[in-house]
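During the second year of the project, the team shifted from modelling isolated chains to modelling whole assemblies. The rationale, set out in the original proposal, was that interfaces cannot be judged from single-chain predictions alone. As a representative example for this report, we include one of the complexes processed in the last quarter. Its constituent sequences, exactly as entered into the pipeline, are reproduced here:
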Amino acid sequence: MNTAQFISKSSSNLVEKASFTWQTPSNIALVKYWGKSNPQIPKNASISFTLNNCHTITTIDFEKKEKTATVDFDLFFEGKQKDAFKPKIAEFFKRIQEYCPYIFEYKMTINSENSFPHSSGIASSASGLSAIAMCLMSLESELNTDLSEGEINKKASFLARLGSGSASRSVEGPLVVWGNHPEIDGSSDLYGVQFPYKVHSVFENYQDAILLVDKGEKQVSSTIGHNLMHNHPYAENRFTQANDNLSKISKILQNGDIKAFVNLVESEALTLHAMMLTSNPYFILMKPNTLEIINKIWEYREENNSNICFTLDAGANVHVLYPESEKKTVNNFIEKELAKYCQKNQYIYDSVGFGAKQI
Ligand code: PMV
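Output from the structure prediction step:
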């Protein structure tokens, strides 16, 4: 695999000081990534909607210094120094240092905040790591002014992926595919690409209401979760199924068959959880209220001939997906019937977004 293309050209004229701020989104997978090999190579291709309101805003101040053997950075989260988050970011810098050797020549001060409540159960690694990757790429494009926007996004996704696989899908929007797939032109295991075909208008401005059922720490970290797929009795079939589902959803997104979309997306969510139910050690990541919500969604869909559906992350929260044309009626249903199953009645209205923005 050609990763040499991502090694930055050395530059003798490093800028003395620079500061960049990026807002990067979270994303929600429709076909799920679960299972990987080193270094962060997915076992199957995945596709996600980029979100709009759930995002991270990160500023990195770079100050030139003598080259050192370790990366020198301070980390602030929501205005407070956060040393507890440092090991994860230090590990990220270790994984990318070969591609961004200039990070040894700067003192970096990272200031980050999320638009969604901390420990809401919404994974912040995708938005958090893509934000850092974009700030690094802003610096890199000062060192190498030949970089095009396409190259910047590609390398940012490549770097973000090395921190957290799904972060590779948090640079662009509204639909991003990560993982090599024969039917998706330009797709790669190394970075995410925008879904390359024309999407049917029914999927424009698709809505995602995130119902916060369980706001605690994730019961299974993604590292442990992905590892459960090694020696999993159903793993190989799952990887084949996911790639088949990607072929199917590619057609669905183009032809607007929303009933098929509902079926595929819900099946993907339940399969992700089935993988955890059937691994060893085994986990039940849904909570009773997750099931209450799913049943209510099914009832509502039946009674109202609606196209509402759900998807799940590796946790108990429910993402309720619906077309913009149903926004008023479904939001009403969420407020009247579903909010009561959320912790402190909390939910977040979001919709499909377009990717990273420099601020
Ligand atoms: O990016 P990671 O390693 O945290 O894995 C994320 C996996 C899921 O969110 C469960 C699925 C996905 O494709 O986003």
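The chain has two domains: 4-197, 206-351. The mean pLDDT is 95.
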